[in-house]
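>> received
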Amino acid sequence: MTKRRRILYADKIIHNVVNIFCLLMFLQLKGFYTVASNPVLLYSTGTDIRVANISKPGKVNTIIRGLVQGSAVDFLYKRNLICWSDQTDELIQCMNYNGTHSGEKMGIVSEGLITPTGIAIDWYTDKIYWTDGDTNRLEVISIDQTYRKVLFWSEVDLARAIAVVPKEGLLFWTDWGEVPKIERAGMNGDPATRKVIVKENIFWPNGITIDYNNNLIYWVDAKLMFVDVMDFNGEKRKRIIKGGLEYPYALTFFNDKLYWTDWKTWKIYTWDMSTNGPMKELIKSEPVPVDIRVYDGSRQLPPPEDHPCRVNNGGCSHLCLLAPTPPGYTCSCPTGVKLRDGSNTTCFDSPQSLLLVAQRSAISKISLDSPDFTPTTLPLKDLKRAMSIDFDPKTEYIYWSDSMAKTISRARLDGSDQSVVIHSNGVPDSIAIEPLARNIYWTDPVTDTISVARLDGSVRKVIIYEDLYEPRAIAVHPTAGWMFWSDWYEKRPKIERASLDGSGRVLLVSEKLMWPNGIALDTVNNKLYWGDARTHKIEVCNMDGTNRNELHNSDILHIFGLTLLDQHLYWSDMQRRTLDRIDKDTGLKRQAVVDQMANMMGVKAFRLGAAPAGHSACAGGNGGCSHLCFARPPPPPGGYVCRCPLGLELKSDKKTCAEPEAFLIYSRKNFIGLLSIEYDNVDNHAILPVRDMKEVSALAVHISGSKIYWSDSKAKTINRCSISGAHMEKIVEWMGLVEGLTIDWSGQNIYWTDSTTQRIEVARLDGSSRRTLIWQGLKKPKSITLDPKKGYMYWSELGSKTIKRAAMDGSSATVLIDQVGKVHALAIDYDKRTLYWAALEPPTIEYAFLNGTGRRVLADDITMPYALTLFGDRVFWGDWNTGVIQAAKKTDGSNRKSIHTTPPLDYISDLKVYHRRPQPGTQCGVDNGGCSHLCLPLPAETREDYRCACPTHYKLNKDNQTCSEPEEFLLFAQKNAVGRIMIVNGECNDAFIPVTGLKNIKAIEYDHDNKMLYWMDEDSHSIRRVPMSYSTTSAIADSTTVVSDLSRPFHMVLDVLGRALYWTCLDTDSINATSIENNSSAGVILKGKNMMPRHLAFHQTKRMLIWNDLGLGAIMVARADGTGRAELARAANATALAVDQAAGVVYWAVNKQIHAVDLDSNNKRIIWQGGWAGSLSVYAGALYLSGGERALMRVPLHRRDLPASPVPHLSRLPCTLAVTKPARSHPCYGGRSCGGAVGACGADGRCGCGLACRACAPGHFACGAGPDPQAPVCVPDEWRCDGQADCPDGSDEAGCGCAAGLRCADGSCAESLGDCATGAYCAPPDPPLPDAFRCDSRLCLGARLLCDGRAHCADGADEAPAHCDPRPTPGARSSNALLVCGGIAGAAGGLAAAWAALRRWRRRRATPPPRVLVPLKHADVRARPVGASATISSDSLCRYPRPTANPPPSPATASGLSAPTRRRAYRHYRAMNRPPPPTPASTDAAESEPEHRAPPPSPDPTQY
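>> returned
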């Protein structure tokens, strides 16, 4: 054969070989052919799933992407399915994969998972088995129908790997918990088949795999570093691999070869058992490989004959599970569902007995039909604090209360059809459903009431409101007509009973009771159960309170919810996080239902389809009642009563509710009630469901607005709400004792008397435009009433024992009737033009004509008439002592009868009538009479129908309709309120300003131009501002922040002309400034050695900043930009400071004296002495001083001989401010001159550079002070916070602390030195670093940076041989050791030289310039710069240190917060054991830990 032919022949052979090889590879990829020695590996990583052919281990294909934290993986070969678990997403998914193409992801399990660590597929019946290391369960699910069942849940600690043997019906899994083991059980979950097959010589059992041909189990121990083999019984155990393993995790078997993943080396290895090794590396994976399988059909061979579940699912309605015992399978039901009675194949469609658990932000249901008690979270939305839960057996809705949302809601058992049925005015706590009458009851510990409504939320009524303090649990007995509730008020805890309508109240238990929480009823045996969270007991008694017995007292820490079903009593323990049950009769047979379930509150057990036992007359047609039907306890049997909701009254047929023409409204103690006057009913009263009432002292009714107004003598407010009790709001605050309240229905104004301040005031119905009408000549004004049509108001005075009259604008006050005793109530009969009153001393009811004549006694045989009102031809009054409400004919007192006697309404404070009759109007009723604020009717004698009036201190303009704001006044602040003092004829001197929500005011300022109130808030460490006007504004909703994050703010002052704000802080000892126009520039105006500026004052026109300095012991002055500093006077410890804008005099308080000096430092003198002062202000020729508990004092400045006089009604004022008219003609006015820079505009309008001239060069830091007080110093930015003070005052190292504990050399924050990757500066030692390695006097290193192969010290001292011991390699020959050491030394020398060269090059680039202090040339500039680039959050502006942008997470945040239903078991681990297996990158560190044991973490290889 020629050479050419030989070449062609060889070429043809090569082509055929290549073609055959390609065909084999194609068949292999398609699954038709596998090379036994080169299988396809399927493995997961944290982010994806990959396949690799061993023949080409370098070529790995990613077939599934987008995993968050991939874990276990398996396949179903016959259906081309790849399935996997994801621990972060908490789901199990599958995907079709045919060798070349991947399909869409299919969700298999998405609920009830936390850490699914192992999965195994039963290829006979197409089911997935899995382990969960956090729920501590083994479960199974059918891939197609997704029927899911918990197989094992007890004595499962930390189950990891799982494997199935379908032909034998067996299931194997590893558990590396407190007692490490390997277990075997039937695939049907039969506990009789469960067996521990390995419990010795085992520590961290990880991967497990099956040799199906030889019935062998291979498994790996990641701590003891071996691979063992054994049979299915755990016998014939043999060591396959020992030594050489690093951190083996998952394991698989194929054709006498083992394959496993290693978390430490990030590799996949193999071991050939036919040759007994050696171990070979196959794949280097990144990220770390997790689980592994051999993707081959021979690993899932079909059964040799039909398996029991193949035909018709084995006859099972849901799950057919293979079993190791005859007949080879078991019909099972999904979790929580049981087999129908008498059937072994058919399940119920859903659980029949359920337990509901409220968990604040979630609600879970637990089936009581299966012994696993697996909780399932309902898909509900917007739960904030679910407290109590109940179930309606008729509609199968669940109801729950949410104390934070203040609602009662409902939904179906699957979470659908969710809706809110009741919006509460208080806080609904416990709820109870009365299923027969279709009502729901709830307790409210805020309003201290028990209420009822229809199940749809309609027809609400308060049924119990007295003698309740902390009502908690409630339960109802529908057929007996009783309800029971607990009250855990610590001074008098109790359990009570009443009829379902609130009548017949009986105290059952009050002794040996502390915190009664849950209540449960046995309606069959008439037993009452309760749990006490303080005595840690469950007790029981009869429903009449007799035969009390202790049922259970063992291991109860804080019982909350309690419920009963059949023979079991269930309760939740908030502290133990458990839900247990006991036998209701004996208290024995305690069983844990759920362990370690967070936030468990109320519980409810019930059976689906079970109708309520017994009969109720309200069950059919609501008993004929139009609204509410309540069953009554016998006798007689089957009794019931009809009741009406708020605003309706029961007609004479006793069944129908109707809206009355009129009814009485009364106030008493801390509630408001309604009384019927049209129908003669026993139940003729209702309570208004309004919260936060403390002590109601007066009432008023606005008919056209359908609102009720009341004053609260303890809260010192006037409030209002709708006639139904909804939409409660405060309208007026900051007053004394208001005991008289009335409404001008035409002018839409409200009038009141204040017996503390001795005033009569008026305001609009929303509380705006508040004005004091009469403030002189009053002696304890009490009741007040109006005659708007005639323009008069009438009031009684307890001090003078008279009734007086005045025009409704407060003018022409006169005594109408004298010697009337102490009149507590007034009422006008507009038809008869008569005035009625109820008086004490002596107790009588009298009346007279409105002109004061015709006085007559109507009734005088009354104990203590205190409240009175009129309607129609009757007069109504309430007796303070007896609590009886009576009525009589208004003309002669005849036809007298009691309107209400039970329960007695003693201590009644006011009584009004609400009616629908039209009320006469006035001209003020039309467009408010054209007035911008108040329209006040006048008597006919004035020849005017009305006049327009303004809020107190506002001026009525020449048009007599509009008002203008005051421009000069004294502003004062209390702790949470601000007010104004203004000396003007015809006005009350003081008035509060309606700004709500203020707290802990430290200092105040006022901006005339924008009508803004500025205040320094001590709580929020900020300066804020809010609009100030005649109407109410909120310091919370309407305010904006000017400066935030202040560190101990002290005082502030406003430059009104220059539009700048100055302030001081205790921690920084500096004066700072910012523009109030845009808040874009801020900086330090003054800061220096020994300076401690505190109080501030500012002279607007002279442009002078004044302050007292504790450090310098003087009163200081400077120009607006901080330059030209000078001393005005010596003052060691001034406590207050003020400047007289007109006279140019500075006043300060020190040593119980007031001193003064002119701005030119002349004429020092003492103005006043006599006490400590915390604030000073000069206004209207007088000096006002206040401080501590004392009243505001006024010191005249023009008469030195006059004593200081107190300002009445004002005390405890932390600060005052004299507001003067701004000099609008001044060249600095508006802040826009001189470029708008802070402090740039001088006294004569001449421009300076202000703060702008203080800017250092780019990349430099401005020191606080230098050698020359007028020449600030700049240092490079890199010198800032470097541990060395470079500024003369050390300001470059100020504020460099770290919230986390330590600032590292690279500027980052760390908890300790060991967490600093670059070390930290040693000086100053704050915190001290005793264990640090010191490179030099500045840089300190942690232990982990020492001898780590990198030089961190400049001289490489941390890598010097003196500190780093050589580590020879064991087992090497000496000659090889010398060669290796020589090579290493040579390499180290080369690397050291390269490293030194690199460091020299980097130093040339990065070393900062020499430390030369650079003074600025501007003579008057000495503070740090402020420019457009500076922000308000600079640390120099007396801020708190800002937190690290991305702080290291705490253990809780690192792992993520679990949902309420996730149970992460709390266990105690034995001290004899060693630490848990670490995550892949920390194996070495874990092995050096002392010997003790904790649960191993779930794998999270995505972090490495």
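>> The CA atoms of residues 579 and 701 lie 51 Å apart.
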